[in-house]
Structure formats: C-alpha cells, structure tokens
Design a protein that fits this description.
Layout: H1 13-16, H2 19-32, H3 38-54, H4 59-85, H5 93-119, H6 123-134, H7 142-172, H8 181-209, H9 225-242
Length: 249
C-alpha cells in the first residue's frame, strides 16, 4: 500500500503533461463515467492499465497499483454478493453480479484514473493545480486548503510505514490471541497515534521556523499550446459523452 501516492520522476508524456490539465481531465472523467456503457468502461479500464504499466510509474509500481485497485474491487464484490444473497428478495448469485458489475467497473475506472494522476504528478504540482481551481472562489482559503491537501497526500505512505512498524513491533512482543481483538487494536492504535502526533508536531515546527504564512501563492508555469489542444479535445469528448451529445458504442 505504500506505493500508492508515491511519485517517482520518470520520462514520458504523462509526466510532462501539466498537472492542471490532468486534473481537469480527471474531473471530466468523473462526470462522464456514469454515462459509459459496459463496453466503453472495459475499454477505458484496459487503456488506463496499459498507461499505468508502460507510461506511468513503471511496470513494478504500476502493477502494484493495478493489483491494489483489483483487490479493493474484489473485496467490494464479495460484500455486495453476500449482501445480495442474504437479502429478503433472495437474489441469485448471477443476478447479484449482473446488478453490481456496471457500478464496480465504473468504480475501478475511477480508481485507476486516480492512481495514474497521482503516480505521474509531483506533490507540488498537485498542490498548484488545486490552488488554480480554487483561488477564484470568494472567501475560500485556497492556499491553506492546497497546503493541507499536499501534506495529507504526501503523508499517506508514511502512515502505512508507521502501521507496518507497529505490526512488526507487536509480533516481536509475542502474538496476541485471536479472541482478544480489543487488546490487538489497543496495541496498534496507541503507538500509531503517538507517531502521527509526533510527526505533526515536527511538521508544525518546520513550517514556523521557515516563516510560513497563509498569504501566499504557488508558482504556476505557462501552459503549452499542444497540451491545451489535446486536453481540450479529451475533455470535450468526455463531457459530450456525459451529456449524450456523442453516441455510445
């Protein structure tokens, strides 16, 4: 799980593409995905898997991201099937899968698109893109929200690292019986909470020592015309499919 939201600089057109344009395409896809047919969702999912493996974070990290997405969808599928079979209507296994399939496939598409965005975009660029889309909102603290977003995204891998260390320390002290789950939760939660508070305190001291103020902006580079043209075409295609301007296939 630590590979999620972990950015590594690589060569490729997705890494050179401006973060603001990638975020705009991601938001357009989030709107259009609910109007996709089953065939369209399958094709887009396969295309995103190809981009993750060969044009994204690499075959290893991209493969781990794809496996993480599939594992989450499989977990939701099991829950959905069990709830459908045990419902008062008494749906069969095939009926439950047919009902859950389109929703789970669209959810998989959104997860893969989010992984592709975070895997090919630096944290500073994500922060700048978030600041771009929120700075014009009246009375909205765009700089504070952008900083909070970037700090949250960058500390998620550290959270999984701290959780792994807590589990390793717990195993070194001896196994806890399965019939005492509260003791296991207490042994994991309190050390993890202590590490999170300590890291937050260090981060606050670092910001204060560097003279951080909320009255600030982020460096925004000039957009490339070719990137704007390609991104605009994709956004128009997605929004046109969302509002049924273009026919489905």
């Amino acid at each position: 799980m630590a590979v999620i939201l972990t950015y590594q600089t690589r060569e490729g057109f997705l890494f050179r593409l401006d973060a603001r344009l990638k975020l705009l395409m991601l938001m357009s896809l989030s709107i259009a995905v609910f109007s996709f047919t089953y065939c369209e969702a399958v094709i887009c999912s396969l295309g995103l898997i190809y981009l993750l493996l060969f044009h994204g974070p690499g075959k290893k990290n991209g493969g781990l991201l794809v496996l993480s997405a599939l594992r989450f969808i499989l977990f939701l599928s099991v829950i959905y099937v069990l709830s459908g079979i045990s419902s008062p209507e008494g749906n069969s296994l095939l009926q439950t899968i047919q009902k859950a399939g389109p929703f789970l496939l669209r959810l998989l598409l959104l997860i893969l698109a989010g992984f592709l965005f975070t895997g090919t975009t630096a944290i500073a660029d994500i922060r700048g893109a978030a600041f771009t889309f929120t700075r014009r909102i009246p009375f909205f603290p765009a700089s504070i929200v952008s900083l909070m977003f970037s700090v949250t995204v960058s500390t998620i891998p550290l959270f999984f690292t701290s959780l792994r260390k807590s589990r390793e320390a717990l195993l070194c002290r001896g196994p806890i019986p399965w019939y005492r789950p509260l003791r296991r939760i207490k042994a994991l939660v309190f050390p993890l909470l202590t590490r999170v508070i300590r890291r937050s305190d260090i981060l606050t001291d670092s910001l204060i020592s560097r003279g951080y103020t909320t009255d600030r902006s982020f460096l925004l580079t000039k957009l490339d015309k070719r990137q704007i043209a390609v991104s605009s075409a994709i956004v128009l295609l997605l929004l046109g499919r969302a509002f049924s301007i273009f026919p489905s296939f």
